[in-house]
Design a protein that fits this description.
The protein is α/β, with parallel strands linked by helices. The chain has twelve helices and nine strands. The protein has two domains: 204 residues, Rossmann fold (3-Layer(aba) Sandwich), CATH 3.40.50; 70 residues, rRNA adenine dimethylase, C-terminal domain (Helicase, Ruva Protein, domain 3). The strands form two sheets. It has a seven-stranded mixed β-sheet with strand order 4-3-2-5-6-9-7, sandwiched between helices. Strands 1-8 form a two-stranded antiparallel sheet. The protein binds S-adenosylmethionine. The site of S-adenosylmethionine has 22 residues, from β1, α3 and β3.
Length: 294
């Protein structure tokens, strides 16, 4: 007889009981117990059983992994919690297209792992219910890797999703918005109420869909300098851009005249706040800083 899906409340309860599992808050363990949400996630990722290679972060007891396995060609899942490895071997036994690695995803050499599982130069989609305590580092780990990530469909705290998709002059807009929007087109696909998780988190969640841009949103001559500038500009949000720039680059006279010249060439008033600068403004300023560097 076929078992009910892992994500059904009764099966989740049975699995947790069988293994004596108690979720760990420190690892961001909130398991989904709603198959409709999972179906919506998979539909957002537009998976295909012939072509889609999917990476999942944190399979937990396999609720999302199971649906991914049914809808993708291959699934590679990273799970840090050693207690879950035998559980996953059991729950995902019917799915030979799933590879579970007992590894901290942040320490993983993603390109190497993906090649081992999917073959040379794979295109991948990342689909995951992320551990919330490290949402941003995980996103950046994928974006900054050389992996060809065509789409990410990821669940996170609603507030973080709003920061990622924010526009200039809003409270949520910051270096995270720019870091992600530089590489990806980002939109909130749908909101997920906290009631679908075991245990329930304190806040609502959102599914964010991110699609890779063919080229970054703006042309930047030195990416490292660009991201350093963006981070620095938001360091003290209440201060002006000028104050943040002095903090970032130093107050020496030659530095100040270099900064003034670059600001003038990018037509940006030093008295503005970082949050009023568009991504284009940041690119112009960063490029001017690089060109005018003595
Ligand atoms: N995918 C499951 C679900 O939706 O029911 C579980 C999601 S739960 C929010 C996050 C999962 O990420 C947990 O299983 C946790 O152990 C795992 N995790 C936490 N930190 C991790 C890390 N650094 N690397 C890999 N997995 C991690």
């Amino acid at each position: 007889m076929n078992e009910p899906l892992i994500a059904t409340p009764s099966r989740t309860r049975a699995i947790m009981k069988k293994y004596g599992l108690v979720t760990k808050k420190s690892l961001g363990q909130n398991f989904i117990t709603d198959t409709n949400i999972l179906t919506k996630i998979v539909a957002t990722a537009a998976l295909n059983t012939e072509t889609s290679n999917v990476i999942e972060v944190g399979p937990g007891i396999g609720a999302l992994t199971e649906i991914l396995a049914q809808n993708a060609k291959k699934v590679l899942a990273f799970e840090i919690d050693n207690r879950l490895i035998p559980v996953l071997a059991d729950t995902l036994a019917p799915y030979p297209n799933v590879t579970v690695l007992h590894e901290d995803v942040l320490k993983s050499y993603l390109e190497k792992r993906a090649t081992e599982v999917f073959g040379e130069n794979p295109q991948v989609k990342v689909v995951a219910n992320l551990p919330y305590y490290i949402t941003t580092p995980i996103m950046m780990h994928f974006l900054e890797s050389n992996l060809d990530v065509t789409q990410m469909v990821v669940m996170m705290q609603r507030e973080v999703a709003e920061r990622i998709t924010a526009s200039p002059n809003s409270k949520a807009y910051g270096s995270l918005s720019i870091a992600v929007q530089y590489y990806m087109e980002a939109k909130v696909a749908f909101i997920v109420p906290k009631t679908v998780f075991v245990p329930q988190p304190n806040v609502d969640s959102a599914i964010l869909s991110l699609t890779k841009r063919a080229t970054p949103l703006v042309q930047v001559t030195d990416e490292k300098e660009f991201f350093k500038l963006v981070k620095g500009a938001f360091q003290l949000r209440r201060k002006t851009l000028w104050n943040n720039l002095l903090r970032l680059y130093g107050k020496e006279e030659v530095t100040q005249s270099w900064l003034k010249e670059a600001l003038a060439s990018a037509t940006i008033e030093p008295s503005r706040r970082g949050e009023s600068l568009s991504i284009e403004d940041f690119a112009n300023l960063s490029n001017a800083l690089v060109v005018l560097k003595k």
